[in-house]
Amino acid sequence: MDPAATNGGFSGPLLRFDSTTVVPGGGAPSSGAGVPVPPAAQKSGTMLRIVFEAEPVSGHTPANPTLTNELPKLYVNNWSDVNDLNLLQFTGPGNTPCSGLTNNLDILYTADHELMAAWSVGVSSAAFPPSGVPPLPPGVSWPAGPSVAHPGPRGEAATFSLNIGTWPACSYKVTLTTRRMLTDGEIEDTGHTNLVTFCKK
Known about the structure:
The protein is mainly beta. The protein has a domain at 83-199: Immunoglobulin-like (Sandwich), CATH 2.60.40. It is 0% helix and 37% strand. It contains no helices and 10 strands. It has strands spanning 25-26, 46-54, 67-76, 78-79, 82-87, 104-112, 116-125, 155-163, 171-180, 192-199. Strands 5-6-8 form a 3-stranded antiparallel β-sheet, with no helix packed on it. The protein is elongated. The N and C termini lie far apart (68 Å).
């Protein structure tokens, strides 16, 4: 810090820590929608310790800093969450996302992250089934904010089946939303949503 600077000489943080320079991360591997991520392929974070040292420009003594404090535990996970979604009716020979559905809707989903805060499956449309949409997998929902001692599961991978024979002919949207229990130090993860659409004949 420049000793000649006044209180009005700085605006915003003076120091930032880019954790990606010391902890690996990126896109977490997936085995596909509806298929669990093998335990050996699941990604986890790393525990760090940050020590801050400061000393005056005069009397420079690197071996014995004048001021020091530390953050003894900082858990860093730079891996993205697995958010894979598909419909069984769109797989197999001759089937495409343009194939109209009649009676069966089989939702393939995989949600995985070491610090999963919440995930959920949703179905929406401009039309409403006569009896409404049956309860869908709700996933987990933990309070927002980072936590090293995370009591919840990493997520889930499954096929969720619905009978849509009585649903109105219309277009529908299926979503998978996931949110990690992480923060970059200023902003908490807001999650993201993956979606597929289908037409009911």
